[in-house]
Write a structure and sequence with these properties.
Layout: H1 5-12, H2 20-57, H3 60-98, H4 106-115
Length: about 120
Amino acid sequence: MKLSKNRLVMLLGPTDILGDDATLEQERVMVMLTKISRNYINSALFYYFEGFKQQYLGNKEDIESKIRRDTEDQTNGIKQPVVSNKQAVIVRLLQLVCDIKPELHHNLTLQKKFHGPFVV
């Protein structure tokens, strides 16, 4: 950030008393002051935001406990239908596995239809 000589004179006073080396030093001082003021503003905004966040959201432990409770509620909501339908699903799976109907495969019946009987 390079400041003009007029700007330096306005901010820090006349520079002709100190010479050209002083303008470089004054420019360095201005850069440091600008950085310090930005850090102060950023830190003030940071603390304001943190206070705002804590006021409306709570602290980290409160947020973690709320997330944990919500997760437990959702898993319990998922477990209830599983438990209530478990026996019916097992019975249906056993029916499908044990109900064997010997039939020819569909592709074999199509092959017989188009190409005649299968000869070994």
